[in-house]
Amino acid sequence: MLKLRHLGQIRMRSNSLFLRLVAGFLCIILLLVCLTSYALSVSKSNVRHEIVRYNTLMLRNTMENYESHFEIITKQMYFFYFSDNVQRLQSDPRYTFFPKVISDILTWVGNPQLYINNIVFYSQNSELGRFAVEKGTSSSNDTMFKAFMSSERYPLEFWEQQFNETYTHRMFPADTFYSNIFEGRKETLGNYIPMVFKRADNHDFYMVVFLDAGKMYKAFHQATNEDLVIYDAQGQAIYNRAPEMDYPSLESLTESGPSAFIRDDKYHFYLKDAASGMTYLHRLPVAEMASQTKLNFTMIAVVAAVVALSIVMSFYLAARINNPFRKLIDSIRGTGDGEPYRSNIQEFDILSSQLRDKNRLMKQWAFLNHLKDIRDHENDRARLEFCGKPFVFILFHVVEKGNKVWPQGTFQSWLYYMKVFIEDKLNRSFPDALTFQTEYNQILSMVFIEDGDELHTLLRDMKAVFDQDRDSGTITIAVTSVYDSSDQMNAAYREVRERIGERLLVDETQIVSSAPNGPVELAFTQEQDVQFRANVREGNADAASNIVRNFFTEWRSPAATAAAWHRFAERVEERIRLAALERIGLPRLDEILANGADKISRCVTVAELERQLLEWVTRTADAVQEKKTEPKDAVTSFVIDYVQNHMAEEIYLDALAEKLNLSSGYLSTYFKEKTGTNIVEYVNETRIRKAAELLLETRMKVQEVAEAVGYRNITSFNRMFKKYTGLRPSDYRKGDHDRPDGETTSG
Asked: Is the pLDDT reported for residue 743 higher than 80?
């Protein structure tokens, strides 16, 4: 029995948080050590592969640079060889031609991108005998190749032999050239690659181009060591920059197989150009590569020290994490009433406070999900179930003042302080009340009440506070009827939102706690509507503005709700858009009516709403007048007139383009540039605008209206009408003028 108890204690200790933390840290350290060891072993191999890849890419870049330059030199020198001055020197040599040829040579030699040191023209069997012309002067052949351009590899006999060769272009291996102008002093000119150009039908004249091999090497070969050999197609070394002269033959390279191999303690990299047949060899000592891939023992020592330090830190951190949690658990076990634990340890109080706030937020979250009909967990729903506790919803709706400047903070920060104030005031009298922000400008509270008088007294006190802060925003307080079940929360939420719409457009805090008497609709009479649209269409700002002013004067005293005024303003905005769309185009109209719905909702009083509508009317009428003074465009005028006169017919873009002798694509682009809308959209907008007029001004059936504006399918007409007006044709006619004389209704 004692053994079993001892085993149980060991098992409990092994399951402790401290040991699990230590074991977890040690596992992480072990894993990191394994990964580091594997990474070091793999990196050594990868570094070697990367070095091989890097040197191969560098050699390829060198080959492409050389090949590109040789091709350029060949083309340019053939162009020079067959120039007029050179051909005259070849066919009829005279001393008077020499300065022109020398000037041309200096031009080519002076180009630093060609790396040409000198160009020599060599001629025999001419009236002038044997002569040579180069960049500095003209001379005999003996002087040229023994004094000016002397070389051990290329004596005078070599150059004379080239007259008998049958090639037209050949590159010879690089050699060091000297100047023996001054007797007894041999001056090195440089290491040059000779290129000979000649005509197949002339064996008495050829051109030699001396390329500066050293400058080309510095420009074209970028490598860590100076080891480069260039072979021609026959295997002859054209250029050799190897530190030693014991470079391999071309045949031995091809026999080795791959383009990278090791021989004589050197890595050999070679590439062959398919077009020219030239082969490029670069060598790198194996010892140099080994030094780059050699494992750094200092790194191993550092890794070992880090591992040892990590183990020590694991025990330390495990103890630092375990001790506070153990004390917290012991403290929690000591409480049995579920109250938040209080202690003189600050961390415990913070945790307790955070848990309490979290529970409140979770309850509010579940509450909001329930209102929005968002499905959630059953345990969250259980928090909202209450029986026999009557409650009301209070919705605080805030309208920001349009001219308010926030020197510090924003509207949302001010609204947050309002929420804190509301929550504090309600919770002092109703501890179980829940308050949270449901929309960007709405704060909702759920209050469990026994006595409604106490709540209304509290709301009146809050109203007095809100009235003092009217410069920032106007607040409306809507209160629902009393409900007694959690199943009625959705109904209560709908009711409180409806009551917010019953507020008046006045600049003061309102408390709406009674049911509305009935909706009051505000709308122009049929005569006013026709005159308003006609005046806007013609740009008569005064006449259209007077209609709006008269309407506001007539309806200013009756207690119309904010929702009714907002609907009226939205209809006026729609009338302006329909009337002026054809006159000034959609882009200009969108500029004038930008953010219309937001501007309407921000109007605090009826006077502000009136000023907003008058501003739109005036700006639109002025834009129409400006449009009248602009010269009419023939193409757009034809399209507009054609659509107006043939609205009931089928209108095709191809037919319009054919009448104007234009392509359909050009016509569509041109019309959109001039009007801001394409032809198809313009036709649809014009038809819907005309249909709206017919629905309001005539008693034609909806089917007849659709046919009158070119729609043969009533379904297509209904869909297009709703797209542009937001209503079906029948609702559009009924919603604004359900009486023949256009009188408004109140219910």
From this structure: no
Say what the pLDDT of residue 476 is.
87
Show Cβ contacts of residue 100 under 8 Å, excluding neighbours closer than 6 positions: 85
Asked if residue 600 lies in contact with residue 609, where contact means CB atoms within 8 angstroms, the answer is yes
Measured CA to CA, the distance from residue 77 to residue 116 in angstroms comes to 11
pLDDT above 70: residue 348: no
DSSP string, 312-378: HHHHHHHHHHHHHHHHHHHHHHT--S-PPP--SSHHHHHHHHHHHHHHHHHHHHHHHHHHTT----H
**Number of residues that this document lists for the chain:** 747
Q: What tokens does 672 get?
A: 């959109």
110-127 burial, b at 16+ Cβ within 10 Å, e below that, comes to eeeebbbbbbbbbbeebe
Between the CA atoms of 248, 252, 257 and 262, what dihedral angle is there, to the nearest 10 degrees? -40
Closest CA to 367 of 352, 383, 355: 383
Cβ(584)–Cβ(616) below 8 Å: no
Question: For the purposes of burial, counting CB atoms within 10 Å of the CB of 480, is it exposed (0-12), middle (13-18) or buried (19 or more)?
Answer: buried
Q: Which of 286-290, 297-301, 466-470 has the highest mean pLDDT?
A: 466-470
In our burial notation (b when 16+ CB lie closer than 10 A, e otherwise), range 670-684 reads: bbeeebbbebeebbb
* Residue 536 near residue 620, CB atoms below 8 Å: yes
Section 671-690 average pLDDT = 82
pLDDT, one tens digit per residue, over 541-565 is 888 889 888 888 887 656 678 888 8
The values of phi and psi at residue 79, to 5°, are -60, -45
Look at residues 224, 254, 253, 235 and name the one whose alpha carbon lies nearest to residue 62.
224
What span, in angstroms and rounded, lies between the C-alpha atoms of 393 and 492?
7
| Residue 738: both structure tokens together | 């359900």
Predicted pLDDT at 84: 87
Q: Report CA 71 to chain centroid distance, whole Å.
A: 44
The arithmetic mean of pLDDT across residues 461-469, rounded, is 85
